[in-house]
Design a protein that fits this description.
Elements (H helix, E strand, L loop, with lengths): L1 H10 L10 H4 L3 H6 L5 E5 L3 H9 L1 H4 L11 H18 L1 E2 L17 E2 L1 H14 L7 E7 L5 E9 L2 E5 L7 E2 L6 E6 L7 E4 H18 L1
Parallel strand pairs: 2-3
Antiparallel strand pairs: 1-9, 4-5, 4-8, 5-6, 6-7, 8-9
């Protein structure tokens, strides 16, 4: 995953062309940490391996063709815990190649890395009737600076993380990660910059625009 982070940071995010309101930028990281939902900013480049994943698993990246509803209340959390636990147990952790030409995200392999755990969990929940817009892959950095992929489930009361490094399903702000980018809720093929990383990128872009005026 380290090459994904390097490319995202080096290349930056693709601008939507819409200027942000100044008051959005004035909301500090304290509010970000308290929020039940991950803050989303401008469009971001999708990880290269995600693009390859969509070529191999086209239906995984297509928008829902029929109306789907989230399970209600505790039933939703029960399903998330069940899938997180079963997938963590079913895939043997292994170190895979991170070379752009060799790396591949795979649904339900016998052995795999964080990418395979995340896409398998998303696949299973979609098969169980969950709307794709509520199941979003996200790129994060661990405390050690390692690139990592998790699945974020957006419920009515907040965003929750399904993670091969954790046996529990946690609120996003209980996972001590730096949040980099995430699938868009409006189109599964698009990604957005998120968290303090997205906030910094937007602030930098606005400063550049002001300088150019």
């Amino acid at each position: 995953m380290s090459w994904i982070i390097k490319s995202l940071v080096a290349i930056g995010v693709a601008s939507t062309g819409v200027a942000a309101k100044a008051d959005t930028l004035n909301e500090g990281s304290h509010n970000q940490a308290k929020s039940a939902f991950i803050r989303e900013y401008d469009n971001a480049l999708a990880p290269l391996q995600f693009v390859k994943f969509c070529m191999n698993y086209d239906t995984e990246c297509a928008a829902d063709t029929a109306e789907r509803s989230l399970p209600s209340g505790e039933r939703a959390m029960s399903m998330l815990r069940e899938v997180n636990s079963s997938v963590n147990a079913s895939i043997t952790p292994t170190q895979k190649s991170t070379h752009p030409m060799m790396a591949r995200w795979t649904v339900a392999p016998a052995a795999g890395d964080c990418n395979d755990y995340a896409v398998t969990k998303r696949h299973q929940l979609i098969e169980m009737g969950w709307p794709k817009s509520s199941l979003r892959l996200a790129v994060v950095l661990t405390n050690g600076g390692q690139g990592h992929l998790v699945l974020v489930a957006r419920l009515a009361d907040g965003d929750f993380v399904l993670d091969n490094l954790s046996a529990s399903v946690r609120p996003w702000n209980a996972a001590e990660y730096e949040w980099i980018s995430m699938q868009s809720g409006s189109n599964p093929r698009f990604w957005v910059a998120i968290g303090e990383h997205g906030e910094r990128l937007r602030a930098t872009r606005l400063a550049m625009l002001r300088t150019a005026e």
